[in-house]
Amino acid sequence: MRKAIRGFSLASLAILWAPLAVAQSKKIEATNLPDHPFEVDYPSGSQLSLHIRSGDVRVEGKDGGKIAVRVGANNLDKAREVRVAFERFEHTAELRVSGGPKNNLQIIVEVPKTTGLFVRMPAGQLEISDVTGDKDVQLHAGELLVHIGDPADYSHVDASVTTGGLEAPPFHEDHGGLFRSFQKSGNGKYRLHAHVGAGDLTLR
Predict the structure, then answer these.
(1) Residues in the chain with pLDDT < 50?
(2) Fewer CB atoms inside 10 A, N or C side of the chain?
(3) HSE-up of 18 (CA within 13 Å, CB side)?
(4) Is the pTM of this model over 0.90?
(5) CA 56 to CA 136: how far, in whole Å?
C-alpha cells in the first residue's frame, strides 16, 4: 500500500510540475504595431536581452511592470510589417524587433525602470534613458546615447569606440579618433559596458 501511495504521489507531482516547466519558456510574436502596440507584463528588477533592427530607437524606463513596443514611420503600411518576438525564460527574457521599412522608422521600447539590459543593434540612433541596472550595450554604427543616472551607482564602467567620438561628462572623459576607450571602477552595484564600432558614444 505504501509503494502504491508513493507511486501515486510521484505521478501527481510530475503532472503538477509539467505546466511549470512549459511556463519557463513562453514566446509571443506580434505585428501591426502602429494599430496595436505590443505590451506584456514583466517584473521590475529582471534581466532583459534586446536585439533590435536598425533605426531610430529609444529604450525608456517606466513605472510599473510592463514591456511595451511602439513604432512610427512615414510609411505606415511598411511599419505594420515590423515584427516583435518576446520569449520569457525562468529569470530572464529576450525581445527581438525586426522587419519593416528600411528608413524613417522610430521604435520606442518601454521597460520597467529597474531592469538589467543587454542590447545589440546594427546601426542607427539608440538612446537609453531612465533605466537603473546593469547595462551591456553595443551599436555597430551610428550614435549611442546612454543616460547613466548617478555615476556612483556603478562598480565598473568600460566604454569604447573603434572610430569616432567618446564623451562621458559624468566620468570626466572626452576622446575622439581611433580606438578610444576608458575604464572606471567604483563602489556601486551595477556594471556598464558600452561600445560603438563607427560613430559617437555619449554617456550622460
Answers:
(1) 1-23
(2) N
(3) 7
(4) no
(5) 19
